[in-house]
Amino acid sequence: MIEAGHLAGFLALAASVVQTWYGLRGNRPMAARMAVSALCIMGISFFFLIMAFVASDFSVSLVAQNSHTLKPLIYKVAGTWGNHEGSMALWCLVVIGFSVAGALRLDTGRPIFESRALGVQGAVASGSLAYLLFASNPYLRLNPAPLQGAGLNPLLQDPALAIHPPLLYLGYVGFSFVFALAAAGLIEGRIDRQWARATRGFVLAAWVPLTIGIALGAYWAYYELGWGGWWFWDPVENASLMPWLLGSALLHSIIVTEKRGSFAAWTALLAVLAFCFSLLGAFLVRSGVLTSVHAFAVDPLRGSLLLTGLLIYGSAALGLFAWRAPALKGGSDWVLVSREGALMVNNLVLAVATLTVLIGTLFPLLAEMTGRQMSVGAPYFNLTFSPLLGALLVSLPIVQSWSWGRMAVEWQWLFASIAGAVAGVIVLSLWLLFDLPLGAAVGIALGVWLLFGAGRELLRRAVTPRRLLRLPVRVWGMTFAHAGLGIFIIGAVVETGASYERTIALGQGDSAEVAGWTLTLEKVQSGEGANWYSDEGTLVATSGQKEAVLTPSKRFYPAARMPTTETAILKTLRGDLYAALGDRRVVDGRTLWTFRVYFNPFIDLVFFGVALMALGGGMAMVPRKQPKLQAQAEQKDIASADVPEIIV
Amino acid sequence: MRYWLAFVLLPLLMAFEEPLEDPSAEARAQRLMQEIRCVACENEPISQSSAEIAGTMRVRVREMVSDGASDADVRAWFESRYGEFVLFRPSTRGMSGLILWALPFTILLLGSVGIVLMRLSGEGSESVEPVEPESFDHDNGTTL
Q1: Which of residues 404-433 of A touch B (CB under 8 A)?
Q2: Tell me: the pLDDT tens digits for A251-309?
Q3: Which of B12, B107, B136 is facing A461, going by the closest CB pair?
Q4: What are the Cα distances from residue A144, in Å, to A60, A68, A148, A150, A625?
Q5: Which of A397, A570, A590, B91 has the fewest CB atoms within 10 Å distance of its CB?
């Protein structure tokens, strides 16, 4: 059956090439038909691949290398994309999926533009499919077939990680369609309000899953790796953060293009770069040029092919940009102190933050060329990236109410100084009274400030509280996203600044004190699952009247000959009591087990904050309800290019 | 996957890692452990490595901290012993160090100057009228 999948892969490639041809020549209906055919064919192909995993058909080389009969069904299915080749097949499927979404959703009344966007997306799909079929083919047979497979990396056998790659790919690949829309707009020389209106939804369609995907990865690292942390500034994490940051910049700049027609060239450039950074991320992760704790499928040849692809698509788009950008029309006029000015600063800082992550990630490679072996880790990013973004966010509650074009700022100074004074008092009292590190105190004040700002802006737009519910969903979306950012920052700084860690060694019946909890080791017993054995400790945690049982365990997966830690997390109001089982030792004839115990205050705020941001992004996608007549009038209004007057 | 190999083969002989008595000294030691790189692992600080050498390095950090060494002393000792590679907080020394630390702020500065110049050299801005952002339109309940 896998041969049918293989053949379907080639047919999908053919359909995508034809889609590119028709698309670039401006035949929208044919390009759309080709996209739909490619999606059906590739869907069938991917289905055959999943079926090979479900049936444990070890005559398929990929299945033999990455699956095992004893694996639970969900991980057999998820194992399809838990490896390089399978994940590339998923990538191709999603690229084509966005073609179809574009073909169905785009309704700008400019068929040539839409057709070209489908054409460019077809070119991205063709490149991806060619890479899949010729450099990382998942459909190959193995002869003779082994009786048993090698199993999936046990670390990946986890519900969060089963859906983490598809979400990340939705994000990365979503930017490919934004890229295609930018290329089509550039070819035409029209990056205007209408373009921005059509594109913004697709930016969100990429940004939201990317946000959730990154958060899931961080959450997985938190409970599965057993080190109490959730973000390590590891190259693989940075690879996903860079497109996210550029996507966030794009989300803000495209609003300026949508409302005022300004920033056209810059928005187009960001749209191109967001996808280039997605490809760069794929290259960094897959090539193994950087050492990382979680590099799962590394191959230098594939890395260089990915780099070639990045150079071809990137330079073609940037060349197109350099050629056409001067022809783009500017929008309404503005001065520095205005909403445009504020959003430009937002974009500058987000771009610099992205470059900072890029520099920090690639610098060890560059330094090595000069014969210096350097490491760049969390302290670097905490001292560069964090203050940059922090400074930007301090200004957010002040500038978010600024008017387009020009802002009269007189009273704003008063507002800013009062806010500054209040924040200063909060920081000092947290620092002196609660003995928090200064950085954490500043972060809490910043988070509270953002929450206050989000609420204030919401009320300002509603004018009277009665109208809150009648505000457009989009405004609520913005409020949730900014509030989520504030909550995230509070969680992140408290967790980083005030988390407590201790390694304890306990024999049966021994107790130890950690962060106000008394932990008593009741027993350590062995257990067994579908494809693993385990040692499971039972710790009784007591604090005053409260009592809870923690059962951290260590699993061993015989198929992969690998252990994993399964942490035990006790949720409390103040934070997580977190225990991971370490090694067994015999001291003076007594068996002792080591436990790493952490107390992570307010850690849930980190994930809750990011979830709120993603929710806000999703709400911002909801189209505005408008009376039909007005919608038509507006459509006409926008379609007649170079609208001189400003619609408020 | 050397990391996991070390995990499996971890010898039983390793000295127990007792936290320091003084909580503030222990907190300082833990912070240092987060920025010293385990020399046997893939991109991990010694605070989170199960490798034997990481345990030895942690013990050494605590020793030095309890002997009154400053953060800089501890970093210098590890650097002299294992090379610059071991520091997750890259030093500002030399050309590379300078470029690495100064680059983000330089780009920010250049970008800001660029924006200001671009705007100032621009058109006569006196004529620009303020336009309220998406405020609620009371008549038909929509915004734009």
Answers
A1: 404-408
A2: 999 999 999 999 999 999 999 999 999 999 888 877 767 766 555 556 777 878 888 88
A3: B136
A4: 10, 17, 12, 15, 61
A5: A590
Cβ-Cβ contacts under 8 Å for A545 (sequence gap 6 or more): none
For residue A642, what pLDDT is reported?
Answer: 44
Decide: A592 and A565 in contact? Cβ < 8 Å. no
Q: Does A505 contact B at CB distance below 8 Å? A: yes
Of chain A, the percentage scoring pLDDT greater than 90 comes to 50
Decide if A192 contacts A261 (C-beta within 8 A). yes
Q: Report the residue from A295, A373, A380 with minimal CB separation from B85.
A: A373
Question: What tokens appear for A480 in the block?
Answer: 């949730």
Which residue of chain A is at minimal alpha-carbon distance from B123?
A: A333
Q: Do A295 and B86 touch (CB under 8 A)?
A: no
A262-285 burial, b if ≥16 CB within 10 A, otherwise e?
A: bbbbbbbbbbbbbbbbbbbbbbbb
Q: Decide: helix, strand or coil at residue A517.
A: strand
Contact across the interface for A333 and B87, Cβ inside 8 Å: no
User: Tokens for A200?
Assistant: 């913004």
Q: What is the ipTM of this complex?
A: 0.84
- Whether the link from the prior residue into A144 is cis, omega within 30° of 0, is yes
> What one-letter code names the amino acid at A426?
I
Asked if A378 lies within 8 A of B127 by C-beta distance, the reply is no
| Cβ–Cβ below 8 Å for B115 and A461 | no
Phi/psi for A512 (5° steps) reads -150, 160
DSSP assignment string, B23-75:
HHHHHHHHHHHHTBB-TTSSS-BGGG--SHHHHHHHHHHHHHHHTT--HHHHH
C-beta of residue A103 within 8 angstroms of C-beta of residue A115: no
Q: How far is B69 from chain A (nearest CA, A)?
A: 20
Nearest-Cα distance to chain B for A325, in Å, is: 16
Residues of B within 8 A of A626 (CB-CB) are 142
* Mean pLDDT, residues A442-470: 88
